[in-house]
Amino acid sequence: MKVRIGVGTGTTVMSGDELGRLLADLEDLGFDSLWWSDVLTVPGDDPVAAMAFAAGAVQRLKIGTTMVLPGRNPVRLAKQLATLDRLSGGRLLVTFVLGLRLAAELEAMGVQAAGRGPQVDEVLPLLRRLWTEDGVDHDGPTWTLRGVTVEPKPRQVPFDVWLGGSVPAALRRAGTLADGWLPALCTPEEAATGRRVIEEAAAAAGRRIDPEHYGVSIGYALDPVPPELLRRVAERRRPGAGAADVRDLVPSGMDQIRRLVERFVAVGFSKFVLRPLVAPASWRAELEQLAAGVLGVQT
Questions:
Q1: 186: phi > 0 → left, psi -120 to 50 → alpha, else beta; which?
Q2: Average pLDDT of every residue of the chain
Q3: Which residue(s) pair with 283 in the sheet?
Q4: Which of 3, 18, 161, 267 stands the most exposed, by the fewest C-beta atoms within 10 Å?
Q5: Per residue in 87-126, pLDDT tens?
Q6: pLDDT digits (tens, 9 = 90+) for 160-173
């Protein structure tokens, strides 16, 4: 099992020069990937636009996004992601999520909370067809297509798509539809339990998910986390989730970050996206600390 460490941009808004330096520093220090979150109503660069910039700026670093799938046109999205995968030489990583269950965010996405899961159930299989077939016909509850062909096709064959989420329906969906799982705001013990549910759902559907396709997105801080920020993070835990040690959700300081990563590795998770909850004063200094603290984690 090979451990790979990526970094998330969080709520950072960057100029082209700033993003170019960040990409170069990540590649120079040996990180696996740079990730963008897809949230419309908080600060942060748009993932599709930022990844297009990144695709041509570096040659080895992977580019990834936790992208909201509900509310998107599947044909346009299939074309955008396939183009990005071609432009990056097959370095695109995609994890689809339902999006934040907040009134402002749902209104901005143009979806109802209860309709998000069914949209994923319809659109993800449709995307796979658009990436591999020509002349696609589709009759679904949301979309109707006749003879649609998307070009280009992705460079990666197959083009793997992961899912996020940790409620029971999301776990079953990951097992039946996804190629991997990238949750957030869960403890190592919760992640291990979720993985078992996913593997059972996959087996029941006649599928198998690669054992190396399990990761976790971790919001962290190098300094003590302000109480108000901790409160907002806790509010985003899935409904019904039990109490958890805050250090298992938001590690603070390099020792806590490394120990939490090691605990996830111990239960079979090997891909990580580390997201600073407070925008770094110096990205280079932040990355150097992360590189020293976690890039050497082994199975």
A1: beta
A2: 93
A3: none
A4: 18
A5: 999 999 999 999 988 888 989 889 888 899 999 999 999 9
A6: 999 999 999 999 99
Q: What are the residues whose beta carbons fall under 8 Å from the beta carbon of 48, sequence distance 6 or more?
A: 65, 80, 84
Share of the chain above pLDDT 70, in %: 97
Contact indicator for 287, 7 with CB cutoff of 8 Å: yes
Could you please state the CATH topology (level 3) that the domain comprising 4-294 is classified under: TIM Barrel (3.20.20)
Reduce the secondary structure of the chain to three states and give it as a string: CCCEEEEECCCCCCCHHHHHHHHHHHHHHCCCEEEEECCCCCCCCCHHHHHHHHHHHCCCCEEEEEEECCCCCHHHHHHHHHHHHHHCCCCEEEEEECCCCCHHHHHHHCCCHHHHHHHHHHHHHHHHHHHHCCCEEEECCCCEEEEECCCCCCCCCCCCCEECCCCHHHHHHHHHHCCEECCECCCHHHHHHHHHHHHHHHHHCCCCCCCCCEEEEEEEECCCCCHHHHHHHHHCCCCCCCCCCHHHHCCECHHHHHHHHHHHHHCCCCEEEEEECCCCCCHHHHHHHHHHHHCCCCC
* Distance from C-alpha of 275 to C-alpha of 162, rounded to nearest angstrom: 18
CB atoms within 10 A of CB 244: 15
Assess contact for 123 and 69: CB atoms under 8 A: yes
Q: What is the mean pLDDT of residues 28-34?
A: 97
pTM, full prediction: 0.93
Q: Nearest CA to 199 among 190, 208, 212?
A: 208
Give the residue among 162, 9, 12 at the shortest CA–CA distance from 81: 162
